[in-house]
Design a protein that fits this description.
By secondary structure, the chain is mainly alpha-helical. Helix content is 54%, strand content 2%. It has a two-stranded antiparallel sheet. The chain starts with a helix and ends in an 18-residue tail after the last helix.
Length: 427
């Protein structure tokens, strides 16, 4: 009876964890993410408009505690972050780059207000914070919470995410029930961590692709960070994978690879390939959402978003799906010429079960088939937003849904036909 009851509890907690994770990730917004309940209260327009969720940011700013609160447990991560452009360069650009003044002037923003708390610019170049007194201020950096979500407040994830049981309990001694409870609590509080790979990618692309049409068309701002690709950038200066060893900055998120709760099938190479595919999907979704809100189809913004959607579709088709399918066909042909190995290690097979055994990538194939019509209309320059705006939104929703399933189903091992993303040379 006791064993049966425990199994039932574990099943319930597992289901709750999945529900909350999906709820948080599917309803993500650019920059500071909020609690799942807050996200669900937002209309689709609020979540995806070019102002990067201004109303929502005002809500979560009161829960921003600042990066120094992370120092007690994450000293190596903090030191690494301090050397990055996120820590200083992003904000300093607003004060020192002559183009910043040009963009502001074109949008009617006074030079003195470029770094003000209500400025469009600080939404991506800094982190908003509201003090208990109600005073709005700007933290002059793209801080920890700009990517991992605002963490403070009574229901925040800051304290909960590192409590492994009774006082003094360690991570390796944490019980499974407590681990699942902790995940549910942190997911409900909106924490974005390494297992939320798609949400992290979307957070990156929501700023590295510009979502404000006027900023591009009138201000002359580039529509996106040049050559930005999620996997490669994540392996560069923003990489801070010290959690299991404060002396080693691993190439993959250490808790994602760690077998403690994940089994033995995950690898660094698989994680990097998964980041590449997930990043491409996030790029495609964000570009589709920004395309759907275009007002001027003759402007540079429309052309840029259209090109990104076409390029994103072709990348997933030609550089991911077709490569994996071709490799599978070659493997199948080789197997037909060889005798089956009946002494295959069954335990090793079980470790690989997280990644699907089906040939090809059926989730991705189905998604691309669903998007084929809108891709063709864009590629043939026949898309008219007056008629196709809803189709763009539905396509973006389809990408988000498929991407969440893809991350849940794959650990990257099925992607071994793809080139493994490499650490940039300047690292």
């Amino acid at each position: 009876m006791v064993v049966a009851a425990c199994r039932l509890l574990l099943a319930v907690f597992s289901c709750l964890a999945v529900v909350f994770t999906v709820s948080v990730c599917l309803n993500s917004v650019p920059l500071l993410e909020t609690q799942a309940s807050d996200i669900q209260d937002q209309s689709e327009g609020d979540r995806t408009r070019g102002e990067h969720g201004r109303k929502l940011q005002e809500t979560v700013a009161s829960r921003v505690v600042g990066e120094t609160q992370c120092l007690d447990c994450h000293r190596s991560e903090y030191a690494r972050w301090k050397k990055s452009k996120h820590a200083a360069g992003a904000f300093d650009t607003l004060r020192t780059d002559k183009d910043a003044r040009k963009y502001a002037e074109a949008l009617g923003i006074k030079a003195a207000d470029i770094t003000a708390p209500n400025s469009l610019c600080v939404q991506c170049h800094a982190t908003r914070q509201t003090l208990e007194s109600g005073e709005a201020r700007v933290l002059p950096a793209v801080s920890c919470e700009a990517c991992h979500s605002a963490s403070g407040g009574a229901a925040g994830w800051l304290n909960a995410h590192a409590v492994y049981g009774e006082q003094g309990s360690s991570r390796v001694a944490e019980t499974e029930i407590h681990y699942l409870e902790r995940k549910v609590k942190c997911d409900k509080a909106g924490q974005v961590r390494s297992e939320h790979l798609y949400q992290l990618a979307k957070t990156c692309y929501s700023c590295h692709i510009i979502g404000d049409e006027a900023l591009v068309n009138d201000g002359g701002h580039k529509a996106a960070t040049q050559n930005f690709e999620f996997a490669t950038k994540s392996l560069g200066e923003v990489r801070h994978n010290f959690h299991l060893d404060q002396k080693v900055n691993a190439e993959a998120a250490t808790l994602w690879v760690d077998p403690l709760w994940n089994g033995k099938g995950r690898t660094t190479a698989g994680h990097k390939r998964l980041m590449f595919v997930v990043g491409a999907m996030a790029d495609l979704e964000v570009s589709l959402r920004y395309l759907a809100q275009v007002k001027d189809e003759d402007g540079d913004f429309f052309e840029s978003m259209s090109d990104r959607v076409v390029d994103g579709y072709e990348l997933l088709l030609e550089d991911v799906l077709e490569v994996v399918v071709e490799a599978d066909e070659e493997d199948e042909a080789d197997e037909e010429n060889e005798e089956e190995d009946e002494e295959e290690d069954e335990d090793e097979d079980e470790d690989e079960d997280e990644d699907e055994d089906e040939e090809g990538l059926p989730l991705l194939a189905a998604l691309l088939e669903e998007l084929e019509e809108i891709y063709t209309r864009l590629d043939d320059e026949e898309l008219v937003l007056e008629d196709d705006r809803t189709a763009c939104i539905e396509a973006a929703d389809a990408v988000a849904k498929a991407a969440m399933k893809f991350v849940a189903k794959h650990n990257g091992n099925r992607l071994d036909a793809l080139d493994e993303p490499e650490v940039p040379d300047d690292e």
